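Input/output pair, single chain:
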Amino acid sequence: FLRGDNTFASAGGTNTPAFRATTNATQTIANNTSVKVNFNNEIFDTDGKYDASNSRFTPTIAGYYYLHASMRISIPDDTDYFLAVIKKNGSDIAQYSSNNFAYNSVSVSAIDLADADDYYEVFAYHNHTGGANYNNDVVTMRFEGFKLVE
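Output:
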């Protein structure tokens, strides 16, 4: 588990590598376009496996991983469609969508078995008229994950 000082503790094993990344700049995406979300601000990265320059987690250690992404978009309530996707090596492994949502937020989680050379990224899509901005804050915009103890 993650302690308040961003160190890890567990009973009988370690949950590393582990990371959390957020945004530190507003990102605009076009209507009806799948876009990789720029999680370019590392909060922590226990083993240096998260690359903030390309918003990609490459664990390099085989095992099961828990991954989570949360996003908030700055568009009016009751938008038609907002989709969050976790991709592994460019292919969807988990997604969550919201139709006519009222809070402009979505989150998606997955547990996945990674090989040493797999990588994970987060993409989003919306169909609100025109472009939309992702919020620039560490609370509503985050990509995080950790290795599960085996």
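The chain is about 0% helix and 50% strand. The two ends are 15 Å apart (CA to CA).
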